[in-house]
Amino acid sequence: MTDWPSVPLAKLVTQHVPDLVTPEDDDIVRFAGVRWYGEGLFVREERQGSAVKAKCYALKPGLLLYNRLFAWKQSFAVVTDEFDGVVVSNEFPQFEVDTTQAIPEFLALYCSSPVFASKALSLSSGSAAVSRNRLKEADFLRLEVACPPLEIQERILEVISAVDAAIDALLAETEAAEAARTALLDELLRRRDETWTDMLIGKLGTVTRGKRFIKSDYVDGGIGCIHYSQIHTDFGAVTDEVHSWLPEQMRPKLRFAKPGSLVIAGTSENFDGVLKAVAWLGDDDVAVHDDAYIYEHELEPRFASYVFASPDFRAQLPAVMSNTKVVRVSKDALERLTVPVPLRETQKDIADTMDAIDRQVQATSDEVARAQTTRAALLDALLAHKIEVTPSDVPD
Predict the structure, then answer these.
(1) How far, CA to CA in Å, does 290 sit from each of 135, 216, 255, 263, 293?
(2) Closest C-alpha to 227, from 248, 242, 207
(3) Sorting pLDDT into bands at 50, 70 and 90, what band is 115?
(4) CB atoms within 10 A of CB 391
(5) Which one of 75, 213, 302, 323 has the lowest number of neighbouring Cβ atoms within 10 Å?
(6) Average confidence (pLDDT) over 347-362
């Protein structure tokens, strides 16, 4: 197996000088970003032209670009036709690719690989405190990439595109299942009769804010804890296990959720995450972070968690949340929200139905995760030339 030549990017690309865009006050200006981990371009926001104060630059289809702040998080993409007319800040340099040597999409794929990200991080500088490490253009051009023949680049793109299509189908299936889950939950909560009531959260139980701890406090074993960020990333509607622990000597400084209580995110970076609730069903009390609330209540715990995710409940939030740098809901505001309260047996039936749906959704999500792991391993093997690739291996 012959090794492919390693070539500095400076020999494959040339930095493009983009057009400066000066919008009119009435224009709607679309700003693009580049997602992490090679997931491509997206429109991150729209602004009125009168609100655009900083310089912005036009994207040009066919060019390679990256986010200087997050190159180490594989933030690379090729500008597609749909982004013609969209703008970026000066943190997104663009490059013309010498297509006699490299396919732009192949370079974006290679630069989005973990191996390249490690090299990018080694040349990046900035504030680790805010997870921003800027890779300047001169340093980017110094980095080397493997440069197989064009027909091999094309074949690698075909293989990875086939895997991506399968993953996209699984993601679409997951999204459809989640939409059906929300619709079913909404339907179940609308099947009311005279036994149902609506009650204020503050009348159904007690809301308490957690106590401060930080991730550097974590130990390998000890007091189980739930950080507010884990509510967004690690847990579904219910959990009976934790992923982190605190030292025993911190116990007097902590606040705990009892089994059956809800642990509720009081803060989020977006609307969808704020007041996400997790029913704690573990055997022991669990320590809760101060950006989360502990809700001791009279409801069936799983039902209570599902109600917090229901459309009618979420519709109450815009009137009570603050939306500055992060989205917050205060304890007093949370206590003023209302939830439907059917008979206990009805609560259990609804929770059992939603549990079954959640198991199906989780099974699909697990399949997506396995496919993404397989893709990463395959991409690594292809780019490192651990797998022989020939242009004749074209799929039917």
Answers:
(1) 35, 15, 9, 11, 7
(2) 242
(3) confident
(4) 13
(5) 323
(6) 94
